[in-house]
Write a structure and sequence with these properties.
Bact_solute-bind_prot3, 339 residues, alpha/beta, 14 helices, Amino acid ABC transporter substrate-binding protein, three-stranded parallel sheet
């Protein structure tokens, strides 16, 4: 879910000062604590959600564990801090968390006025619509005059109004303060459709009493590149978080996964040797051991493995790779070379 992009000048100034004082030496601070504090969703299936026993799962959760694996050689050394959409940026700016991995859209205002750096895109998303199958609607363009449940004060609400206006169709938006209220209103029949990020639609559909009676429409009406964020002012930590993601993508592209990574240590492929640290000293340049990427793959897996078990075909969401496929398989996921 995306909060309103408007940020007051006063808030931005304070955020920059706080971020500057809190961000230096993050790697050392994490090591001294003995664990990574990761800003997470309060509960979104497939991305970040604890079960009744407090065990966290999801694509974003896996990424947090991958960072811990690189730093500690132990993917369990993570403290997940549930954050609302409203509180997530303040928590990162203040140093309450070391990294924010919480289905957060990368925008220019967030990149420039909040004292944050986005390290990449771990999920290419876009806003969509969900309707009841009984409505017999196959396209969002057929929603002329329909009522749409949407969370207020978000870019989702702005995108919705823009889409209907651009297509010259009538809109009856029904707004609610929280995502829970919005979903409950849709399920109660107060709206014909429900809109949020498409990934969120698949996750929220699982919470409905009869998920199979609801359909996610094909239209994607916005660009929502979701990714981790760190504070301005600590280039080393920015590099570490960024390259953990690139290592997972590179591993998938090279066919290195959790099951074969030990065997791949003997590979003669120079790309694999550099990835796993048997050639070169790329870990040292990050302030990590040279087997940092080996740790990530061994303990968490490559990007494709994480995607499939959390949001893909091995998960209840069963989302197709689509834009999140590798660049050489028709998608957008692409990592710079390790060399």
């Amino acid at each position: 879910m995306k909060t309103n992009i408007l940020v007051s000048a006063a808030f931005g100034a304070v955020a920059a000062l706080v971020a500057g004082s809190a961000s230096a030496g993050t790697l050392d601070n994490v090591k001294q604590k003995g664990f990574l504090q990761c800003g997470s969703n309060t509960g979104l299936a497939g991305f970040g959600q604890p079960d009744a026993q407090g065990n966290w799962t999801g694509l974003d959760v896996d990424f947090c564990r991958a960072i811990a694996a690189a730093v500690f050689n132990d993917a369990s050394k993570v403290k997940f801090v549930p954050l609302s959409a409203k509180d997530r940026f303040t928590a990162l700016q203040s140093g309450e968390v070391d990294v924010l991995v919480r289905n957060t859209t990368w925008t220019i205002s967030r990149d420039t006025s909040l004292g944050l750096n986005f390290t990449g895109v771990n999920y290419y998303d876009g806003q969509g619509f969900m309707v009841r199958k009984s409505l017999k609607v196959a396209s969002a363009l057929e929603l002329n005059g329909a009522s749409v449940c949407v969370q207020q004060g978000t870019t989702t609400e702005l995108n919705l109004a823009d889409y209907f206006r651009a297509n010259k169709i009538q809109l009856k938006s029904v707004t609610f303060a929280s995502s829970d209220e919005t979903l409950k209103a849709y399920e109660a029949g107060r709206c014909d459709a429900f809109t949020t990020d498409a990934s969120g639609l698949y996750a929220e559909r699982l919470r409905l009493a009869q998920p199979d009676e609801h359909l996610v429409l094909p239209e994607i009406i916005s660009k929502e590149p979701l990714g981790p964020a760190v504070r301005h002012g600590d280039d080393q930590w920015f590099d570490i978080v960024k390259w953990v993601g690139y290592a997972q993508l590179t591993a998938e592209e090279l066919g290195v996964d959790q099951k074969n990574v030990d065997a791949m240590l003997k590979s003669d492929n120079p790309d694999i040797k550099r990835l796993l640290g048997t050639e070169g000293k790329f870990g040292e340049a990050l302030g990590l051991p040279n087997d940092w990427a080996y740790r990530v793959i061994k303990l968490v897996g490559n990007y494709g493995e994480s995607f499939e078990r959390t949001v893909g075909q091995g998960s209840p969401l069963k989302i197709k790779r689509g834009l999140n496929a590798l660049w050489n398989k028709g998608g957008l996921q692409y990592a710079p070379p390790i060399r």
